[in-house]
Design a protein that fits this description.
- The complex is a heterodimer.
- Chain A is of the alpha+beta class.
- Chain A has two domains: about 260 residues, no CATH class; about 90 residues, no CATH class.
- Chain A contains eight helices and 25 strands.
- In chain A, the strands form four sheets. Chain A has a seven-stranded antiparallel beta sheet. A six-stranded mixed beta sheet of chain A has the order 1-6-2-3-10-11, covered by helices on one side.
- The longest helix of chain A has 18 residues.
- By secondary structure, chain B is α+β, with helices and mostly antiparallel strands.
- Chain B folds into three domains: about 160 residues, Beta-Lactamase, CATH 3.30.450; about 80 residues; about 140 residues, Heat Shock Protein 90 (2-Layer Sandwich), CATH 3.30.565.10.
- Chain B contains nine helices and 13 strands.
- In chain B, the strands form three sheets. Chain B has a six-stranded antiparallel beta sheet with strand order 3-2-1-6-5-4.
- The longest helix of chain B has about 70 residues.
- Chain B is elongated, with a radius of gyration of 34 Å.
- The relative contact order of chain B is 0.07.
- The chains are: A alpha+beta, B alpha+beta.
- Chains A and B meet through helix 3 of A and helix 1 and helix 2 of B.
Chain lengths: ~375, ~375
């Protein structure tokens, strides 16, 4: 359900009517003129269980919105919790008594905090293959870190909200970025900063590849404008690589990415085009539609940098996804968000944080 | 394309290899390497089982499992013992039963880590094949060695901690026993002293002798307790070090000792060393005291001297006494390691000497010829 109103009471009533006694998943576009802390208070007064995040943009149906609220129903919630202090790595993942049935875990994490990969590792260590994983990074497109995830306990920065449901879900993950050059070795890295590639200054290596391929030159002001089309890919054995988005270059020529890069990681430099990205998004949708049996809702987690790259063509990507879903399941509701980092277990493998990727989840009961 | 794939494989093996040996902590070492393998190869789980006392104990697992012990059974033993370096199992219920988590089906690679147990890599889908395992094998061998290093390091740490604990307990015990024993000893001393003062004339000769024997034993026990206390506190109460003129110190020490007339003590020029006056005095006093005590010659000689030995001074205290059989060279430095049951010997003196020398990072040893004499050598850092 999409909520246009910015009146707290109206928003609360709409959510209450939509989710009834279930839990609400609330995705708020960052420019929505609403007092989120006031909303939390009112939802609590009404006894509504909820979790949510504030995102650069939100998705409802086949449209994206810079303002507005998308509410989804999370049925059969087993556990709802918040993990605070993600960057400090000092927290406890609560135990869950998983029974012999399907579970789905949904999480919104502060996409601009550090050590998100550590948090995902901890989730997987504790819950393993008992559940599927799905979620994304919340935050502002200004890249200024501020409180952006919330649940009944409040609005938080450097935190993640998590909901575990007794529910079957099918997840498709694809990005469509293709290798331009590589492989390279990240000979020195620290968290999300690439400090050396092939024992050389990373920007020098990156620049030589990107300028040659794009036939454009980097200058003081256009790093992201050019780099948004040339992410790194952490090479995996099979399937698509894990994309790392270089956001900026510092005065030492080190590249700052969204998401961590391990020391000695083998990477390619990638590039994409409208066709490859849209086809990948369609594949992600097709992958989960193909596996689904009786989905009730679809949630799309798409990277904000895809819209920055595709610009006006992003509508085509979203249309391609929603059309596939609606063609197969006309009654399924579609919602989601444009995120800073996407979360899923790739092909049911280890839990990962992605950049520049489309993750589509089909949720059944 | 083939060459490119080959290069990629080598680089990935390089990445795996570089994740090994970064830590001497077992869990961290496993996290660094195994997590990377799971990520890069899209695998779902991994665990390490080691055989301890006829049980397979889960030493590590991703994700955390509930089962920590897998009972050995002949079929499982045969299965695992049959793995020379690695083996791939598809939907093998017995192999899957080793998992600390519930698994119904899937693909399992098992590597034999020799003394470190078995490493299991699990894929729900078919993401591992024999060719993969063969490429991984050298890296897994490196990982196995890293685990061995972790185990040895952890054993050493445990041993060190135990030693520290035991040392502390012994020291506390010595301290406590000494203090507890001193109290009744003082009572006995006081009571026998009063009895001597008030009733000495009422005793016959035998009674008087027995009374003297009691007082002598009390004094000896007091000396032993003091010795234990000294020994247990030598390296505990770290005193300040400063320049000590050993020649003056040893000369004063000897002049305060009761040296029999038939024994000559010769002191050569001795250097200044850094140390604590009280400890150094104790060191020389105990050695000279022994040299005098165990001298059976009509003209006893004790010589205290030193030679320059690069970074150290090598001191020696020699005598022309009875000598010590070489089989007792170790025993004499042990606490209560007496060679003779003399009334005036506590058996702690040389143990205290050794501890003081070690405290100053020196070493001590003895050379002796039965009937001719003994020389105690020790070094002190310049």
């Amino acid at each position: 359900m999409f909520i246009y109103s910015t009146q707290t009471t109206e928003v609360v009533n709409a959510i209450k009517k939509h989710v009834r006694s279930n839990t609400a998943l609330i995705s708020i576009a960052e420019h929505t003129d609403i007092d989120v802390e006031g909303l939390i208070q009112e939802l609590n007064k009404e006894g509504i269980a909820f979790m949510g995040g504030i995102f650069p943009k939100v998705i409802h149906g086949n449209k994206i919105f810079e303002k507005g609220i998308v509410a989804n129903t999370l049925h059969n919630i087993e556990k709802l919790f918040v993990i605070r202090g993600i960057s400090y790595k000092n927290y406890r993942i609560p135990p869950i008594d998983f029974k012999d049935r399907d579970y789905s875990l949904f999480t919104y994490v502060d996409g601009l905090t550090s050590n998100i990969s550590h948090f995902l590792n901890r989730l997987y260590l504790n819950y393993g293959m008992e559940t599927t994983y799905f979620g994304g990074g919340a935050g502002s497109l200004s890249l200024e870190q501020k409180p952006c995830v919330f649940n009944n306990e409040g609005l938080f920065e450097d935190a993640a909200v998590v909901g575990v449901m007794r529910m079957t879900s099918r997840i498709g993950v694809k990005h469509g970025w293709k290798k331009v050059d590589g492989p390279f070795i990240v000979t020195k890295a620290d968290g999300n900063i690439i400090k050396e590639i092939n024992w050389k200054n990373p920007f020098e290596v990156y620049r030589s590849v990107v300028e040659k391929h794009s036939k454009r030159k980097f200058n003081e002001h256009n790093f992201f404008d050019l780099a948004k089309g040339y992410p790194f890919g952490l090479v995996k054995k099979e399937g698509e690589c894990i994309v790392r988005d270089p956001l900026m270059v510092n005065e030492s020529g080190e590249l700052i990415c969204v998401g961590e890069v391990e020391n000695n990681a083998v990477v390619d430099i990638l590039n994409g085009n409208k066709e490859s990205l849209i086809n990948a998004a369609k594949s992600a949708a097709a992958e989960c539609i193909y596996q689904s049996e009786n989905p009730r809702k679809a949630i799309i987690i798409d990277c904000i940098s895809r819209i920055l790259f595709l610009e006006k063509h992003f509508d085509e990507e979203l249309n391609a996804i929603t059309k596939l879903i609606k063609d197969q399941y006309p009654d399924v509701s579609i919602g989601g968000a444009l995120t800073i980092g996407e979360i899923s277990s790739y092909g049911e493998g280890f839990l990962e944080l992605y950049n520049k990727t489309t993750v589509v989840g089909m949720f059944e009961l | 394309m083939k060459i490119e794939n080959h290069i990629l494989t080598i680089l990935q093996l390089y990445e795996y290899a570089m994740a090994i040996g970064k830590s001497l902590d077992y869990n961290e070492s496993c996290n660094n390497f195994i997590r990377l393998i799971l990520k890069r190869k899209n695998l779902n789980a991994a665990w390490i089982l080691s055989n301890e006392n006829n049980k397979y104990v889960c030493k590590y697992s991703i994700p955390f499992g509930r089962k920590s012990i897998v009972k050995t059974q002949p079929d499982l033993n045969n299965l695992l013992h049959g793995i020379d370096s690695f083996e791939l199992f598809n939907n093998n219920a017995l192999a899957l039963s080793t998992a600390p988590i519930k698994l119904k089906d899937g693909h399992l690679a098992v590597f034999n880590l020799k003394e470190e147990g078995y490493l299991f890599l699990y894929s729900k889908k078919n993401n591992i094949d024999a060719q993969d395992l063969s490429k991984l094998q050298p890296v897994i061998s490196k990982f196995m060695n890293a685990l061995k290093a972790c185990r040895v390091f952890s054993d050493q740490q445990r041993l060190l901690k135990n030693l520290e604990k035991q040392n502390q307990e012994l020291s506390d015990y010595a301290h406590m026993v000494s203090h507890d024993l001193k109290s009744p000893l003082r009572s006995i001393d006081a009571l026998t002293s009063w009895i001597t003062e008030d009733y000495y004339d009422h005793f016959d000769v035998e009674g008087k002798n027995q009374l003297n024997e009691i007082r002598f034993s009390v004094n000896k026990m007091d000396a032993m307790i003091k010795g234990i206390l000294d020994y247990s506190t030598i390296d505990k109460n770290q005193s300040e070090t400063y320049d000590v003129d050993l020649y003056t110190l040893v000369k004063e020490t000897v002049s305060c000792m009761s040296v029999p007339e038939n024994i000559s003590v010769m002191i050569d020029e001795l250097p200044k060393v850094r140390g604590d006056k009280f400890r150094l005095q104790q060191l020389f006093q105990n050695l000279v005291d022994n040299a005098i005590k165990y001298n059976d010659k009509e003209q006893g000689l004790v010589n205290i001297s030193v030679v320059d030995n690069n970074q150290f001074w090598k001191f020696y205290v020699s005598d022309n006494g009875k000598g010590i059989d070489s089989k007792y060279f170790d025993k004499i430095f042990q606490t209560f390691g007496k060679l003779e049951n003399r009334k005036d010997s506590t058996g702690i003196g040389l143990a205290v000497v050794k501890k003081i020398v070690h405290m100053y990072e020196g070493s001590i040893w003895v050379e002796s010829t039965l009937g001719l004499g003994t020389t105690f050598f020790f070094t002190l850092r310049k």
